[in-house]
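Progress note, project year one: complex with iron/sulfur cluster.
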Amino acid sequence: MTALNPAALGTVRHDWTLAQVQALLELPLLDLLLHAQRVHREHHAPNTVQMSTLLSVKTGACPEDCAYCSQSVRYETGLERESLMEVAAVRESAARAKAAGATRFCMGAAYRSPKAKDLKVIAAMIREVRALGMETCATLGMLTPEQARELKDAGLDYYNHNLDTSPEFYGEIITTRTYQDRLDTLDAVRAANLKVCCGGILGLGESPSDRAGLLLTLANLPEHPESVPINQLVKIEGTPLADSAPLDPFEFVRAIAVARLLMPRSYVRLSAGRQGMSDELQALCFMAGANSIFYGERLLTTGNPDVERDRRLFERLGLKPEAGAAETDGAAAGHACAHPRAHAETAA
Ligand code: SAM
Ligand code: DTB
Ligand code: SF4
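Model obtained:
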């Protein structure tokens, strides 16, 4: 098929070409939104948004040189470092997130890759969060297949590891680990039977063809990530990308819509950058097929819209949060619940 045959959009494929992805990105915006919304409704409950809350469980002093990041030891960003948190404090934070309405709790650590002793503590955090009846996610840098299995055994549901940008542009952003390193970690995560959360960042100074290259690489992975976070660069003073040119907001919306078309069954997360977006722009992103957000006042080290603003936004748009595994009877928003053990553990 050609990518522009609208009737053929919405099937799960792994053989996209760059030309097809570029053609989708260049469609008239309203056509693109129409296709994306149609495909969205074929695969997902309409008007329903999954909500994850982030917590940085180990902050700063990271040896990597990711040019966008507040936590790299190489840039003077004024960030206060924090060593690995206590398990009890993480549990309390997760309980607060659950009470506010989040169904998934994502623990982030500024590691190149976790050390064995730290992984044991993080495994304990995962057990505690899961015992609250929440889905668990972690993002800890590169993993070996054994480490991925250890996290799975602790009850981890998702592992977040982003490709960030296209293979061609990647070297401009990170030099301390390769694109292949990232693909290897994703393989290790899949081999451990964990769900994959993998996406990228827009607004790094990449070209439209790099945005197509990122989306193409994600869509042609052997299996689509269950969750695809699309981040807009949060500009951090002191990093090489502090003065990046702003991205045309419609280019961001287009990328969300094309992610929806290329990976019809995946959750597409409108991720970092929401704090700087108008309510209208966020509404366009939901129209384009975004059905997940980071929820709560903080991302990892930067701000996010406060809970009250998000509640008002959901009310004005008629959106509802996706029910958590613990609140449904085996189905979330009309879809089979992927976490039967969560029910077993929280029933009664
Ligand atoms: N250190 C681990 C790693 O890089 O794999 C995990 C944490 S890292 C902060 C997780 C992801 O957050 C990055 O891959 C990147 O996509 C995103 N991110 C980090 N800083 C960002 C920023 N300033 N703006 C937008 N996204 C950002
Ligand atoms: C993802 O794709 N975005 C989140 C999460 N995965 C870990 C992180 C966004 C970080 C934004 C900058 C900060 O708060 O430090
Ligand atoms: Fe370290 Fe992750 Fe930040 Fe890169 S993105 S500097 S690996 S914390």
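Residues 62, 64, 66, 69, 71-72, 110, 141 surround iron/sulfur cluster (ligand 3) (CB under 6 Å).
The CA atoms of residues 45 and 333 lie 6 Å apart.
No further modelling is planned for this target in the current period.
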